[in-house]
Structures
1.
Amino acid sequence: MRCSAAAAVLLLLAVLCTHTRAAFLPRHISSLIPILQSLEANNTQDIPSLVRALGGCGTPVCHTLLGDPPPTPVPIPEPWTLLSHLLHPNTTTPERGVVLAPDGSTVALAPLFAGIEVGLKRAMGWPGPTDQPYAALDVLYAVTITEALGTSFLLARVNGTAALGPGGCWDDVDNPQNFTLLGPPSLVPNAVANGAMDGVLLGTRLAEDPIPLSILFRRYYGVSNGIASGWPHSSRRRQDFGAQMAVGKLEEEVAAMLRVLRGLSPTCELLEEVGEEEEADIARRAAREFMEAYVECPAIVPRCMWGARPYRGTPRPLSPPLGSIYIHHTFVPSNPCRSFAACARDMRSMQRFHQDTRGWDDIGYSFVVGSDGYLYQGRGWHWVGAHTRGHNSKGYGVGYVGNFSSSLPDPDAIALVRDGLIPCAVRAGWLHQNYTLHGHRQMVNTSCPGDALFQEIQTWHGFK
């Protein structure tokens, strides 16, 4: 590293250290980048193993597959202390070791770095474990998702709890400190799913082309000097993971993991009364439900993440399954939003207009479609919206951010609704299987959703 670059790293680290003493390090990917740069400048050879030494992937399977992490020096160097803070903010947070990415998603660091460690080992020719039963595992999937997935579904079988989710929200997206889950926790909340998928994708990439992690993270998460720019690769993690991992392959890997867990304490107790057929059924359900939730269905940014105001008055409940979907464009804002920050800002602007100018109780749409790879929760699945006069209780209103009178949304934004939201809504019971799809102009005297978008939706299933 050139002297000027090393000096810049030291300056960034000094800023982070000062911030840490004054308050707490922001739990953001951009906080992680200078720490990685500092470790790389100090020739720290195996950063993922260091993460395990500081409390990352420390389960029995992970330890057996990846080996012993390096010893922790005394005194602990400052970069190690900062990294340890991101891994373990405190013992009272509902979900430890998570950070906020510029795309608005929350990522668990343990499965992310475990996948990266496997990728780097493979780049150096590491053959993986050869002893049974571990030789049957694909280590990349084992340390990122299948151990957590198999164990979570076993616990759900015993306790009757959810095996996947929930999501959550940060207290401040600019200076995230505290993360709150939006429901009872599982071993695979959304942050672990995101971290696992990122670990698989980045581990695969590093196995083919090992590069410094600070550069890898900047490129993948869209971080440039702590500022998000463009549409980061991380917002496509679901599509990219789905292209790499078929549901049948994931089922095979979970089944192999369950056979390993049967021989380990304390997980062996969870399998004492599980026969071979039920074990196969657990693997099948775990793979199918994970892929449906985190690959086939699009991510929806919750209200608390885009900074929604409270609902005014008392919301009226819907009675799903509903029979219709109504497609809109926002017209104003007229430009598509292409980043989490821009889309969240547009959501707040629309909510202010709908509440303060139009006098509505809340933002009118059920869901809003960004051009950043994400859907945004408006009134959601449960509450009557204010999107299609005379029909608000009969269907969900989905609005595309932008003016699509003469141009179309991006192909990925079109697919978010056509191929993602609508089929998932049918499968989850929010929407009738024989639903009808309409443009706003078919129900109300309006030009919405614009000539170009209206022509497009006439080719979609369910259009009437």
2.
Amino acid sequence: MDFYYHPCSAPCRSVMMTAKALGVELNLKLMKVMDGEQLKPEFVKLNPQHTIPTLVDNGFSIWESRAILVYLVEKYGQDDSLYPKDPEKKAVVNQRLYFDMGTLFHSFVQAIYPQIRSNAPADPEAMKKVDSAFDHLNTFLEGQDYVAGDCLTVADIALLASVSTFEVVDFDIGQYSNVSRWYENAKEVTPGWEENWEGVQLIKKFVDESRQKE
């Protein structure tokens, strides 16, 4: 399987962790998005939206990380633990995945990206949405070790990639006790955490170097 990615992308890293959990080998194809490689005709042919991550499995092309996570588990999972078949359990996993996409990671894009790209100060209104997202996640995790049931699922993996990326601006995850507890456990039990953290550190290095130039 060809996997078009960049290690700084949380959605890309969530796919890499899921693949590792499944024992699936990915043929990693680094995309230099800052150079516009995603706009090359051969890539646009694979993905008209020219976004990463993009997975090509035996000629089948799929993008949007959370769709890729589900595809990988449903096709290559030895069981349904990462993405349950039970309708109610699956619905909870789906809800958490959509929460990650539309609320938590979206708040990162709105509040943190500007700080990374232009070293701009945090926008107070945008940061309120970050706090709100973490408040909701903290509620989801009340009395639970995992975000969608009693074992690791793709929802944990997607959210782990997103939550860890907030650390590039030293966001205080510790102020959310349930999230902090879940985060420490997720680091231990999620295959591929080390590679995920390497990607976070790449962004952190960029941020630190930008600040030093001021």
